[in-house]
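Record format v2
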Amino acid sequence: MDIGIIGGSGYTGGELLRLLAQHPEANVAAVTSRRLKGQDVSRTHRHLGKIYDLKFEDLTPQEIAGRTDIVFTAVPHGTAMQVVPGLIDAGVKVIDLSADYRLQTDVFEKTYNLKHTDPRKTVYGIPELHPEVAEQSFIANPGCYPTGASLAAAPLADSGLIDHVVFDSKSGISGAGADPSQVSHYPNMAENIQAYKLTTHRHRAEIVQELSRLDNSLKGISFTPHVIPSVRGILTTAHIFLKEQTGKEEVGRIYNDFYGDKPFIRLTDAVPMLGNVRGSNFCDIGFEVEKDSNRIVVVSAIDNLVKGASGQAIQNMNLMFGLDETTGLWTPGIAP
Amino acid sequence: MDIGIIGGSGYTGGELLRLLAQHPEANVAAVTSRRLKGQDVSRTHRHLGKIYDLKFEDLTPQEIAGRTDIVFTAVPHGTAMQVVPGLIDAGVKVIDLSADYRLQTDVFEKTYNLKHTDPRKTVYGIPELHPEVAEQSFIANPGCYPTGASLAAAPLADSGLIDHVVFDSKSGISGAGADPSQVSHYPNMAENIQAYKLTTHRHRAEIVQELSRLDNSLKGISFTPHVIPSVRGILTTAHIFLKEQTGKEEVGRIYNDFYGDKPFIRLTDAVPMLGNVRGSNFCDIGFEVEKDSNRIVVVSAIDNLVKGASGQAIQNMNLMFGLDETTGLWTPGIAP
Amino acid sequence: MDIGIIGGSGYTGGELLRLLAQHPEANVAAVTSRRLKGQDVSRTHRHLGKIYDLKFEDLTPQEIAGRTDIVFTAVPHGTAMQVVPGLIDAGVKVIDLSADYRLQTDVFEKTYNLKHTDPRKTVYGIPELHPEVAEQSFIANPGCYPTGASLAAAPLADSGLIDHVVFDSKSGISGAGADPSQVSHYPNMAENIQAYKLTTHRHRAEIVQELSRLDNSLKGISFTPHVIPSVRGILTTAHIFLKEQTGKEEVGRIYNDFYGDKPFIRLTDAVPMLGNVRGSNFCDIGFEVEKDSNRIVVVSAIDNLVKGASGQAIQNMNLMFGLDETTGLWTPGIAP
Amino acid sequence: MDIGIIGGSGYTGGELLRLLAQHPEANVAAVTSRRLKGQDVSRTHRHLGKIYDLKFEDLTPQEIAGRTDIVFTAVPHGTAMQVVPGLIDAGVKVIDLSADYRLQTDVFEKTYNLKHTDPRKTVYGIPELHPEVAEQSFIANPGCYPTGASLAAAPLADSGLIDHVVFDSKSGISGAGADPSQVSHYPNMAENIQAYKLTTHRHRAEIVQELSRLDNSLKGISFTPHVIPSVRGILTTAHIFLKEQTGKEEVGRIYNDFYGDKPFIRLTDAVPMLGNVRGSNFCDIGFEVEKDSNRIVVVSAIDNLVKGASGQAIQNMNLMFGLDETTGLWTPGIAP
């Protein structure tokens, strides 16, 4: 497969390159960056030195489509909708890593306060929840928080047992991107933790969409994000209030049945943690049932740049091309 | 005041020494450690070099009481109850930093699975919630998590508005003490976050005690702790479900009325964070009301070793001796 | 004393405020920031909330001099020389925290590639090396790296024993200031260490000036700085090659004689580390003599924002006003 | 190839497993741990969950040799010499990751203060310096510090230009192993840096051996290690004093000639840093020539667990089996 990446200078672009370097069927044919046109990719992504001998290019959708079988768009929301139509019209497969196509158009416009210029039906690319990914030529790749949150609660939502749920998520700061800011300034982030957008983060809309699809009677979905002094990873603590008390064995059976054969889901007796999934496409999930209570605490851990972004995009690509979904992704995390 | 510290080799002992060094009325007369008897205090606490010229001693309660006006017991739970009676009998004022006297005896015995050998009535030393501290000669100093959680939710509990609340707390690893362990091993803790005792942490009993006292109709109190890659601090994210929707102004008024004149409570429009309270006795509190919802997210930030332990103990001491509660504690946090 | 701070929005300004809050003789009368004029100081420095009730002002040198006894200038190099003459002419005492007055004019102009508009003789304010600080009304406060390096090597330089020395210094990232940059971006700094300006850092000129003053036959002074994933602190590893092998006792005697009565120097048998001086004005110094060799490794640890900047400035202020140099500074570091 | 690992519960064992999971010719046939016998390998190394379905075994050298083509010994020094002879006698290839066979017997015994029970000639396995690795059936895998230091200075040593050199090395704390200690305790290591064994670290003997082999007239080799708040990586700052001033171009030519075709050496114009080599087998090297001086500062960056241990071991294995040395190792580092 010849692969194109539009917007290759950021973290998700760099992570696509890192992961594709280990993919036996992938050949990265073009990487674009308007700003860095003509520069070596490995000058921006120095960890890729000697691995790639590529330069950033400035290409139109038609040009990049002409040289590739699939294009990943790793651009800001609002920009993707300007690029994707041209790619699709040129007949290339597309996976969009931005937020532009993840939500129903009306929900998108309200959430992002932005007119959508290319309303279009797609599949939301969490393969564990959307097996129909395999038949698509265009996929909206999910947000990082919604991936961790949806995977944590989906089995119980699907079983119709949830009354309401509070997602308290903790993300590594790489989720905020490669551009320096006050929040990412080391003296501000080290030895700290910052809650933000306590009740208004845009990713909530994706979680609501996915869990409501599984159980449209679900009464409440709350979501509060934090950034922690970690580069990578999202730990989601899902405080789930069930309609009735449910025992540990029953909950375990529900998760096992739901995820039984999914390669990247690791159900665990231990409490999941970022250190076990760093650099990998795994989503570790564990839970504990509160005694004499209808609350269950489910914890999921992912690498925000892999299962939360570029790894999941490659997993989608594999399925779209009829490959095993683990191709090129069956690598362990890096620990310690 | 001549002050004694029983168990001075750990973090709360060291923090008492650090803070008392700046207290105009305090003279540390004795510090005990059976293991380090005869050694310079500043050999264990090297940051105290040249500040103190003290050696660890091994003293009976009677001996230390004979040389001091007040004794802080900074020993493990189960040990304090063996020491405190002797101190009280010897007529010295006592502040116990362990868990032994914080709970009703029956609750303690169930929570800690331990027979209490010295059942005794005390006051739970959060001065903002217990003004009666000032008349006591013996105080049970609260746990770190309960301090942050109780202060975050007390005004709403007191107003009778809370239906149920989920406390999702994030603590610096110094809360686990000075002894190395797998959890505190740098390669395990760095770039990580660990949820633990998802539904069973013992500190929940203290939170329940304090909030139920303010509103005994409160339906549910959940508590899930995490450790984060930070040495100090506890950030508590309180997901509070109210009985009815309540506006931002009304909530603000409730907090202002409740805490108006309390020096160490800083109500803030910004989201509180650990970086602003590190090393200080302040508790920063902020909140956001979710739109079209009865959920409010309240965030509190404290330094677990100061307001969550040794600083609050000194605040209690000040009140017990008729001093202004800020004496020796009116120092800003250290930032960045 | 009424105190003014010109340029109070950065880290050294914030640290002056933090430290002066604990100084019994100090009253901060004015803090300037052109950009933040009219805003609460505690909105920028949130850790100072409730401690100060001050607003940033935009004042001329004459105006601030009219309201104060001493002014600290915490502005970038090149700016100080535009402000200092007016302050001095207005008769106020001045401590300049910039680089403008630390070097001989010709050395400054070559090192900073900048014409000096106010050549003027001053004293270089490391009080342990310059007791004449006490008679001055204008002091050039030293750079952070030169403070750690000069204090580590001064006794041996003074004894005439040094052949050449390599300073390998490791600084916390707060030394780069409060403005975000690629280097201070958390994902770039965490789990990393960056050597920079391997042979060309401007602070070398200050080290050369101070050590050559003690021994003008010194043959070589090399300096290579690094930033490490720490907010505060500078650890200096001084690889000192002596003219001849010198025993441990002799070296110890030299350091003791040189620093014997200096309150902020702590000579230690252990290897100094940042964790013991954080937040304090101490400089910890230790050393080891290499067996069968004329190399000695001396290690010094300071807090770059305290002894390396604002704390030392206050130490200088104390001396200039005839106070004990420890006034308001005799506080232990914060550990852990 | 069927592979055995003796001592698989530590960091180097875990890293061998992580890297071998991506090696197309490798099959891990046996992993031993006396303590964890019978337990799932992925219970200790949770990041390897679903990747390996192996249990720790307790095997004699003969047993493990009977099931494998090559055995890695990842055991403490002193233990390897008890295991290696049996393996070699059983006819299996061996790579020892301990210190036991890295030094001449007399130097080993003096350095480690331990009688060697199996004196035996081997090759020191830095393949870039020892192409004869390819003909061996037993290799002593080098220490982490010596790998970074030797690779930084070898070209200049080989050219006979070095007068003396000071290696100031900064290591991630994973180098201290998986067992918790005071040094690795998060509150002690975070926001800190610790110099240790300022002049007496045992790894110096390996550096001396390797550089003296290239230039036996070399006058002085100093080495001072530090641990920094990073899990992985070693940054070596080599302060090299040449016999005469040598220009940048000439030095560049020497490094290019020496390393020209070595795949894992990346010569760079930028200053190398840990963040670019994390998780990879690369050694990045850069340098700067001091103006008007005979000092050159060379900086090298490696991942201590990969090029400094397990990755280099696999590189040696590849060569011993006639494979391309990059087989299974041609993966980029993980960044950010």
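Chain D touches chain A at residues 11, 14, 17-18, 21-22, 45-51, 174, 178, 190-191, 231-232, 263, 266, 268, 270, 275-280, 282, 284, 330-336 (CB under 8 Å).
Residues 144-158 of chain D form the longest helix (15 residues).
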